[in-house]
């Protein structure tokens, strides 16, 4: 291993690969890093992807470089473990995605015309991906939708796949009617297990409504979370002026402050 490369501030990608190999070295590496495996690192990979999305959503461009580095480290980490197991190397990963991008963009790298709409390109992209799934013997309509996706995102992807073969409500009205039906079934649930099932059905139909309305449900829920935080912090700040905290208040007072925060947001 090259000490000069590890401490070279301009070492780029080779430097990061060398650092990761050193961290995983069974004799001289970091005990924590050595103990990890694909399954233990996977949650960090997901978390880092969300932190990239969060920085972009907040337009925190100074943070984005760091968050992208954290996400890149996840790819390097998984690849180092695969290299140790004799499965593949980082070059294999890079060449694989490069081959995929070239194959999926024949209008850029091949002889197909670029004179097509974004919608047509999306349809062509889906055809290419369908052919790739067929090569993997993924012949079912829903095959290949990753199990590890966030549940709302996976619900939308499953519904999109089913819609391609006509299994879909034609308008949002039917979806909203189904939401009302599922909400009533949740209200009538006989026990906790039944309520859990009906709650899942309701969430699934809500994801379908988001798809029909061209709304990203994950993005919408993140925005709702952010709004909740803003308004609750307003409540905390308003109470703090009086030398109090939410524990010293009650629901009626905090609800009134919530309405004040909402009115201020709309006015501003």
From TrEMBL:
The NTP pyrophosphohydrolase MazG-like domain is annotated at 36-109
Family membership, please give it.
Answer: Belongs to the nucleoside triphosphate pyrophosphohydrolase family.
* Taxonomic classification: Bacteria, Pseudomonadati, Pseudomonadota, Alphaproteobacteria, Rhodobacterales
Could you say which EC number(s) this protein's record lists? Answer: 3.6.1.8
Reactions that this protein is recorded to catalyse: ATP + H2O = AMP + diphosphate + H(+)
Q: Which PANTHER family match?
A: NUCLEOSIDE TRIPHOSPHATE PYROPHOSPHOHYDROLASE
For this chain, one GO molecular function annotation is: ATP diphosphatase activity
- Name it: Nucleoside triphosphate pyrophosphohydrolase
User: Keywords in UniProt for this one?
Assistant: Hydrolase
Any single GO BP term? dUTP catabolic process
**Is Translocase there in the keyword field?**
no
Do the record's keywords include 4Fe-4S?
no
What enzyme class is recorded for this protein? hydrolase
- Xref: Gene3D superfamilies: MazG-like (1.10.287.1080)
Reading the lineage from the top rank, the first entry is Bacteria
């Amino acid at each position: 291993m090259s000490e000069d490369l590890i401490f070279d501030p301009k070492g780029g990608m080779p430097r990061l690969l060398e650092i990761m190999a050193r961290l995983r070295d069974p004799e001289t590496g970091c005990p924590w890093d050595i103990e990890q495996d694909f399954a233990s690192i996977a949650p960090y990979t997901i978390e880092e992807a969300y932190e990239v999305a969060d920085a972009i959503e907040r337009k925190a461009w100074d943070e984005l470089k760091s968050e992208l580095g954290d996400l890149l480290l996840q790819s390097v980490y998984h690849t180092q473990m695969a290299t140790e197991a004799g499965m593949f190397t980082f070059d294999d990963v890079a060449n694989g995605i490069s081959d995929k991008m070239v194959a999926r963009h024949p209008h850029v790298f091949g002889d197909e015309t670029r004179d097509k709409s974004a919608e047509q390109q999306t349809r062509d992209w889906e055809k290419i991906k369908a052919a790739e799934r067929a090569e993997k013997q993924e012949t079912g309509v829903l095959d290949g939708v990753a199990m590890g996706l966030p549940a709302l995102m996976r619900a939308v992807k499953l519904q999109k796949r089913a819609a391609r073969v006509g299994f879909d409500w034609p308008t949002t009205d039917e979806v909203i009617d189904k939401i009302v039906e599922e909400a009533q079934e949740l209200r009538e649930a006989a026990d906790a297990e039944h309520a859990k099932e009906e709650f899942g059905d309701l969430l699934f139909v809500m994801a379908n409504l988001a798809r029909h309305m061209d709304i990203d449900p994950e993005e919408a829920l993140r925005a709702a979370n952010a709004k909740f935080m803003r308004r609750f912090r307003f409540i905390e700040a308003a109470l703090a002026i009086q030398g109090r905290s939410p524990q010293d208040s009650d629901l009626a007072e905090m609800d009134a402050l919530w309405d004040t925060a909402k009115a201020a947001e709309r006015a501003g």
